[in-house]
Design brief:
The structure is a single chain. This protein is 41% helix and 22% strand. By secondary structure, it is an alpha+beta fold. It has 3 domains: 91 residues, Multidrug-efflux Transporter Regulator, Chain: A, Domain 2 (Orthogonal Bundle), CATH 1.10.1660.10; 35 residues; 150 residues, Alpha-Beta Barrel (Multidrug-efflux Transporter 1 Regulator Bmrr, Chain A), CATH 3.20.80.10. The strands form 2 sheets. The chain has an 8-stranded antiparallel β-sheet, covered by helices on one side. The longest helix is centred in the middle third of the chain and has 37 residues. The N and C termini lie far apart (126 Å). The relative contact order is 0.09.
């Protein structure tokens, strides 16, 4: 048995040397087979993103092991992923990118680039308009925050969405706005210009801590169709109004009214219309009632 396994010395088994070129080629083939984790790390892209691209048919793994399900990527796919990124930065959707790559071209046509330029210009105009509105809103908030306790201002003519209701007490104002008026205005598609202006007008002939006949108004961009909850109307300009800052819960409005009417009397003014209470910060954005900010506006002459 041993003899059959042995070879004569002159017929010893020899190993064929592997050329450097063949060895390098073998190693390159091995290195090109990257796991999804390795590919993710090299390309600084999350595995979640790679799987999303795979689902969209944008970047399929070069190989999927039928037994383990492991995904492998090749070096060539690095360039494909880079093309996807570049096109995304230029505003192309994944669907548009897939069409480009399926056509063996990662370069959009002149027509497609013209369309993206037009779309970008439209988005730029929208961003500029948004920026102007945000600046106006910020400046308005700064003005309110820094304004003195008393100030004399004019109130322009505006269109408002109005809701009138008898509420049990002042604490019910917040829930009425959040649970009833807000959802109805949203349903009607009301658009409110920033920074936003809402106020209430009380219709009681005398003070009452309960059963308060109150009308809530919020400025909107245009007249809408009335509903059972919301009615639209245009309010005339108020050329001069005493504006008084009130910080705290609504049950303490009487404190600010006391100061306001004392100011009116001391400065020789008289009241010429229904007062408004404008709400800046309340239950919708501030949990602590002690930090609620309201502006009482009293038309004067």
């Amino acid at each position: 048995m041993l003899k059959s396994l042995t070879r004569p010395l002159g017929h010893a088994l020899t190993l064929q040397p592997i050329s450097n070129k063949h060895y390098y080629r073998t190693m390159m083939i091995y290195k090109q087979k990257l796991t999804i984790g390795e590919f993710s790390k090299l390309m600084q892209t999350t595995v979640k993103t790679l799987r999303h691209y795979e689902q969209k048919g944008l970047l399929l793994p070069n190989e999927v092991d039928e037994w383990t399900g492991y995904r492998y990527y090749s070096i060539d796919q690095m360039q494909r992923l880079q093309s996807i990124r570049d096109l995304q930065r230029l505003g192309f959707s994944l669907e548009e990118i897939k069409d480009l790559l399926d056509d063996d071209s990662s370069t959009p046509s002149i027509r497609q680039m013209d369309e993206k330029i037009s779309e970008t210009e439209r988005q730029l105009r929208q961003l500029v308009a948004r920026r102007e509105k945000l600046l106006s809103w910020r400046d308005s908030r700064k003005q309110i925050t820094t304004m003195e306790k008393f100030s004399i201002q004019s109130l322009p003519s505006i269109i408002v969405a109005s809701h009138r209701e008898v509420i049990p007490n002042y604490a019910a104002i917040g829930p009425m706005c959040v649970e009833k008026i807000g959802p109805e205005m949203q349903r009607l598609g009301c658009k409110c210009p920033p920074p936003g202006y809402c106020f209430t007008v009380e219709h009681n002939k005398e003070y009452t801590p309960t059963d308060i006949d109150i009308e809530y108004c919020e400025q909107v961009e245009e007249m809408g169709e009335d509903s059972a909850i919301i009615q639209f109307k245009r309010l005339p300009e108020v050329s001069k109004a005493l504006c008084v800052k009130h910080v705290g819960p609504y049950e303490r409005f009487y404190e600010s009214y006391t100061e306001a009417f004392r100011y009116i009397e001391e400065h020789g003014y008289r009241v010429v219309g229904q007062h408004r209470t404008s709400y800046i910060d309340g239950i919708w954005n501030q949990k602590d009632p002690e930090k609620w900010l309201s502006i009482i506006q009293i038309p004067i002459a």
